[in-house]
Amino acid sequence: MPSEFDLIARYFSRGPVQRADVLLGVGDDCALLEVPAGRQLAVSIDTLVEGTHFARDADPRALGHKALAVNLSDLAAMGAEPAWATLALTLPAADESWLAAFAGGFLALAERHGVQLVGGDTTRGPRSITVQVHGFVEPGRALRRDGARAGDLVYVTGTLGDAGLALLAQQGLFVGLGVLDGLRERLDRPTPRLAEGRALAGIASAAIDVSDGLAADLGHVCAASGVGATLFLERLPCSAAVRDYVAGTGDWSVPLAAGDDYELCLTVPAARQAEAEALGATLPAGLHWIGTIERVAGVRLVLPDGGTIDQAPVGYDHFAGDD
Amino acid sequence: MPSEFDLIARYFSRGPVQRADVLLGVGDDCALLEVPAGRQLAVSIDTLVEGTHFARDADPRALGHKALAVNLSDLAAMGAEPAWATLALTLPAADESWLAAFAGGFLALAERHGVQLVGGDTTRGPRSITVQVHGFVEPGRALRRDGARAGDLVYVTGTLGDAGLALLAQQGLFVGLGVLDGLRERLDRPTPRLAEGRALAGIASAAIDVSDGLAADLGHVCAASGVGATLFLERLPCSAAVRDYVAGTGDWSVPLAAGDDYELCLTVPAARQAEAEALGATLPAGLHWIGTIERVAGVRLVLPDGGTIDQAPVGYDHFAGDD
Fold this sequence. Notes:
Two copies of one chain form a homodimer. Chain A is an alpha+beta fold. Helix content of chain A is about 35%, strand content about 25%. The first copy, chain A, contains ten helices and 13 strands.
């Protein structure tokens, strides 16, 4: 049985990305890194826990992808350019085939975005994965949550509700579809919207990634910014599968409150609408107008029939309802 | 019941340290940070898992201290000046009294070293704690593991084996002492040797913190540097309790192979011996000569009676012996 150090070295030291700004990577007490002159450092840390965020039999390759993707999504939401990652892995046993697949998924996504794994820790215990990512952003261009102002326009990238519908299907709560493979891909292998965040840094007034559900996450932006918002449900960009589901059930909670899509929700000052939309047309995931920022707190909904809901339902919260 | 976000905000947002280089702390998708011009960034991540690193009934205040301390110890071993920490906390339930005590221990140590908590994640699951620390070091002065050369002298700070003896006592394997409180303090609330690491940065040729046991950790330095070492057991600095234990049992494994002391083991070129020892005399934990670096690989021991052991026993390894 290889030791802890051998395991880390075998699966993670020989990553495909070798960056010039990494002076010392995996294997010492610390990694030694160089932030480019004139850039700010953006960092985010997130944990995925077996039984809470993924099932025991989850595909380890998809899990390796997702553990990095959800963190890269935070960099995207900040308008930052990704650079480095660290990985703290807790495993019940040193299962080499699991590790090889997990490392494969993790490192493939890292390579796609030029991210080098620079440090880590491997411990024994109930399976969980903590990743921290590090990126760079130019001073004044970071997309914070607190920059939305009344009169700004609300946009979202990509489509909403695919991951939520896949989760319903996986739980056996929705069986109406033959097109689940694409939805599953959205749930298991989310795409961090890094190009979109980079393009809109310096243009959007605020941003967040949609991990708890659109209504909840836009609510975080509104709370941080001291504003409110109105969303127009018929403007929510949805895949054909989600459109059919909503048409058949009347259940808007899938695009509105289900998490895990990892799209970006951004606010844009009206003065920069044309610029943002021109850019949006060139972006892989597109950029869709869905609502407006207003002075009055809270997130309000306008239904397709013109009716309104004063308080949008919010998404999943890990500790809500404990007592 | 407060939500996940409220919990984080309540216990960790209002930390006592507010640094000017933190442009945006807890509460956005990322923290935004500024590394001082001309400094390198040192980062390290470590996880403590219930059942592996601590018991279910462990004092949460001590645990908060230890989770940060073991990471700061990695910065110390690099000769880095600590700046920021992130915390990923997984808990079976939102136990507010546990959280308050844990945060108290964590933030008290953070304040002592001017460390600001800049980000985090709270998830539900089996209890575990992952901390990443970030510090600064001047180019060329970092204490790497790979810098030891034949002829260098081997030093250690503080005393060795206190935490190991406390662990034996805690496990009921050693009952010979009435002075356990001080030892328990060493196990539960280790002191990261930050002043010692900073002072010796640029003087020592290599360093590591003693977390797996002296023999194992010096072995890592030797392997990374392509050298070997001889340790003189009678030179190992020990508290009265550990000296008595070794005298009574003949068991050198406590100071030599037990982990968790979080002292620093450093190598110093002979040309800088006087400088290092003069500095050592001014340091809180002191600096003790214990051996020499040699060309031949491996860690050898010289016993007090002049006998020798060709291969030192090594310390704890999380995945060793799996099959």
